[in-house]
Amino acid sequence: MLQIFSDPSAVAEYVSAALIAKIQSKPDAVLGLATGGTMEPIYARFIDQARQSGLDVSRLTSFNLDEYVGLSADHPKSYSVYMREHLFRHLAFDAARLHLLDGLAQDPAEHCQAYAAKLRACGGIDLQLLGVGGNGHIGFNEPGTAFDCPCHVVELAEQTRIDNRRFFAAGATVPASAMTLGLAEIMAAREILLVATGESKAQIVAEWYRRDVTETVPFTILKRHPRTTMILDEAAASLLPDEVSRQCVVGVAG
Ligand code: F6R
Q1: 225 CA to middle of ligand 1, Å?
Q2: The pLDDT value given to residue 176
């Protein structure tokens, strides 16, 4: 399913409402969470809507997708700090149920296995939120990742390190490697919402639309997932064929 909204705030409104509906119907849901620029307005809107509706988030479990190898949980650019700042500290989550990969794990490969095992023990992901990289990665599953790959350590693609430089201070080095849930765990999620906003995603979204499922463009694998919704804004959808855009525009700015 493909849905196109006018802009990132209309996207945020929709995704936040979908998250709230999921949590209302299953208060102990397991959420798969992403970081990055795309998610910021979504989490901000979710926090507002959750407060307004008095949503109980205390029984939720979450597993984040990824973390840079070498960054501690209190490093300002770690995804732990991102999640605390953009979501966790704003609502009454149960900290014991919030799972993130540890960038300082002594043995990252073993840590990935343990993380995947913990996720399985929690019953897998009910609802997975995904952004997409300019090269089509989901989580940090870079082009060429095998579709059956479980949680693993990954050398980041050069394009990913360039794209993510904007989050780091001038002169700081973007870590070369990361740990990520694999395409195996992502595809096992019972429902997936993939979000892409902005012109910088238009090319890869058009490629996703045009191409068959291929490891070269990791998020094409989502075409095989029975309950995935692709949620775009008009800028990200701008290189899709006109007839697709016309059929799928469902929201306008509020
Ligand atoms: C982040 C993640 C990545 C991002 C992707 C898009 O946890 O898993 O796949 O979703 O790199 O990042 P933004 O939203 O910054 O363009």
Answers
A1: 20
A2: 95
In this prediction, residue 254 carries a pLDDT of: 46
For residue 160, the model assigns a pLDDT of: 94
Pocket-testing residue among 64, 65, 160, 161, ligand 1, by greatest number of atoms within 8 A of Cβ: 65
Q: Which residues are catalytic?
A: 66, 135, 137, 142
- For ligand 1, is residue 86 a contact (CB within 6 Å)? no
> Is the separation of the CB atoms in 69 and 177 below 8 Å?
yes
Measured from the CA of 180, which atom of ligand 1 is nearest?
8
Q: Which residues of the chain have pLDDT under 70?
A: 251-254
C-alpha 23/C-alpha 168 separation (Å) is 33
CB atoms within 10 A of CB 61: 20
Alpha carbon distances (Å) from 226 to 26, 83, 117, 229, 237: 20, 28, 24, 9, 22
